[in-house]
Amino acid sequence: MSVFSKAVSMAAFIAGLTLAGAAAADCERGTLDDRFCDADGDLVADIPTDASELVDPDTLIFTYTPVEDPAVYVSVWAEFMDHLAAKTGKKVQFFPVQSNAAQIEAMRSGRLHIAGFNTGSNPLAVNCAGFRPFTIMASLDGNFGYEMEILTYPGSGIEKVEDIKGGQLAFTSPTSNSGFKAPSAILKGDYDLIPDRDFEPVYSGKHDNSIMGVANQDYMAASIANSVLHRMISRGELKADDVVSIYKSQTFPTTGFGTAHNLTPELQAQIQDAFFSFEWEGTALQEEFEKSNEGQFLKMNYKEFWDVIRKIDTANGVSYACN
């Protein structure tokens, strides 16, 4: 399993996180909110150097992106949360959220400490909430990611992307990469198809809603993350031939996991160690995510891994300004 090098000591890691201080009013920050600084140019918020701005909570609040029913994941993450508690010496509580916006607001307001934000929400969480992503799930051979697919149902009359014109397409939410951002950019750039002008956009709220909506013929077509589709088929929630794929994108990075920027450096180091030292074998986490061929936490950096997503946001005119 690929993890942090054991040769890197905790002290060296913490030292690497500590940056030369700069007042928030006059620091480099790029597209980050005015509350944050980015002195090292890695595009994520620096850890505060003023001790009064750091937090070390007794209970750590953890949440996973609401790509599916949050209730599904309470038990899936239970063993990992026990491991996280052992590594940090803290109580750990799972916080189920119903929307990407609620998840971002929870971290921005200081009520959320550790999170997995979905692909499309990562840039907003980084820029508006001070999210510091450091890992994603990957297969045991180091491959990672998923594709956006556009699904329809057998006999819908839709055989290719162009056939969506004059019909309906279900998105999930405006903050989702595969559920809105990527298909919007691709449909406009490659097919000259624009929502409202060329087809009716509807919003399901979540990928599982979109997938089941197509399978049940409530939606003529939907854009989804195929990692969610694969897990749902593996759980027996639908059959593979209940839906038909008419488009498959390039591979995108999957959910990014990280911390709030203002946790103490020591605590952030402990949390990272918990992710990279977790043994998946025989756990509910392995049982659930091996359905999408994932079996380890892989070290990553936001600047490199999310480059394609930021380009999609630019193509869609997305602003990272906080509301």
From TrEMBL:
It holds the Pfam family Phosphonate-bd. Keywords: Signal. GO terms for cellular component: ATP-binding cassette (ABC) transporter complex. GO terms for biological process: transmembrane transport. Residues 1-25 form the signal peptide. Residues 59-292 form the Solute-binding protein family 3/N-terminal domain. The keyword Signal applies. NCBIfam families: 3A0109s03R. Belongs to the phosphate/phosphite/phosphonate binding protein family. This is Phosphate/phosphite/phosphonate ABC transporter substrate-binding protein.
